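Q: Second attempt. The first request was missing the SMILES, so the protein and flavin-adenine dinucleotide are both included now.
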Amino acid sequence: MKRREFTKSSLILGMSLMAGPANSGPSRSHNLSGDYYEEPGKKLPARKFDVVVAGGGTAGVVAAIAASRQGAKTVLIEMKGYPGGTVTEGGTTLHSFFNIWKPFPGVKKRQVVRGIPNEIMGRLDKVGGWCGFGDMKSGKRDSTNTVIDTELYKLVTFEMLVEAGVYVCVNTLLVGAIMDGSRVRGVIAESRAGREVFYAKSFVDCTAYGDLSTFAGADYTEPNDYQVANAFGMGNVDIDKIFKYLADRDGIREHAVGRRSGVVDMTIRVQGNFAVMPDGFQEEAKNIGLQSATTTIHDNYLMFVKSNLKMPVSPTDRDAVSKAELELRQRQLKTLELFRKYFPGCEKAFIARTAPRLNIRRGRLITCDYDITNEDVVDARHFDDDVFVYSYHDVGLYMVKNGGTYGIPYRALCPKGIENLLVAGMLITSDKMAHMSTRNTVNCMGQGQAAGTAAALCAFKNKGIRDLKYGDLRGALVKGGVYFES
Ligand SMILES: Cc1cc2nc3c(=O)[nH]c(=O)nc-3n(C[C@H](O)[C@H](O)[C@H](O)COP(=O)(O)OP(=O)(O)OC[C@H]3O[C@@H](n4cnc5c(N)ncnc54)[C@H](O)[C@@H]3O)c2cc1C
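A: Got both inputs this time. The predicted holo structure:
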């Protein structure tokens, strides 16, 4: 069924039934046999919350903490056994808590994303789990370079969720939405404890692919315009030797320093120029889509090494994803062999950690009341409903004007046509270049704090997301440590 047909029919279904059943969402598997089985109805156990946050990843962790700190009875539903999401599995560096001041002489450095995302960094600091706000020595896309210990990130965010009073359901998959017209009444989730319902007044979709929004009948697009990756950690390596090898050949594109194994001013990021490598390396690197940036905060360890793969179809196609998962693991071994053969200090390297599943930079994009454009980003535009500000753009060509910031408007987090659902994370923004800014980890976290706070306020006041007074939201965000510029 085409997206629009699906959306239309699910809305009609929801409206005609009123308080109707969960809709099945878009088809996720090929039915080659043409056979069907009609599932019998079942009575499910149900619980009531003020706020449901779906997906405990980069944005969802922050959304759930924010909602619960407002006093809302909050449940977080996460399908993996830990919180953290793609920030612990995909990226190399957390872009970016600061404005990009270095390319703009005279512009001062300032921290533009604060609040809960900054608190997480503080907690990581206490357990030796980050590099500090590292310093970019070369490369102009970012001015700072923040690297985290991905395993400790999972732990400290889990602890922060519990301390904030969030009811955390890990290993729990959200599989449906219960609609009452254009209002989400509840969600259906599955775990080894069975199938159950969570009712709430407000909902936040932080599933990256917009699972909850699509179950609720929201409109979406699916550009499938990125490669997928399974970034892995490589042990028994010497980043200083890799850096020297590349630097001796004038092959450094980006270099950053920060705290590594407790020592300051150490190399924590290297992005090489593979054109300086021997032909054999270049050829194989191209075949496996090897990316040249890596980061670390530990000696003898590269946190993220990735080879990319372009899938012929959407990463929501289960069977195509199964093939890609195997191919990516084969590419990991080829990557390891390349490092062992060509980089000094990597002769006895090994694969130390892989992601539990492949990642992509954008899957489904949920259509919201406002779609942020690249002009909004580069022209440093602010809106009368800004919920935080941001400065980083992943394409160096498109820096935010004068080292400044742009605002993320509340409207950009409101899925069209749904009364009580907000979204946060990589699932917003359909403009590809603007998405190069809004999808970055720290931006997703900022969105999470805004969406979680708004969901809690709406739940208290029994209001739809569009009836919330901006002044109330902004006041709560400022209290929560969020920084604004206009
Ligand atoms: C390969 C790669 C490299 C990147 N590099 C960088 C970088 O260097 N710097 C940077 O800042 N950004 C980078 N990004 C972008 C950034 O990491 C992501 O855009 C961001 O982390 C996405 O956050 P999110 O909260 O939207 O999704 P996620 O962090 O993926 O969180 C979604 C969560 O929802 C859960 N979930 C999904 N569906 C369900 C369901 N039905 N039920 C229950 N749980 C569910 C998932 O398990 C996950 O935990 C990169 C992305 C990729 C893929």
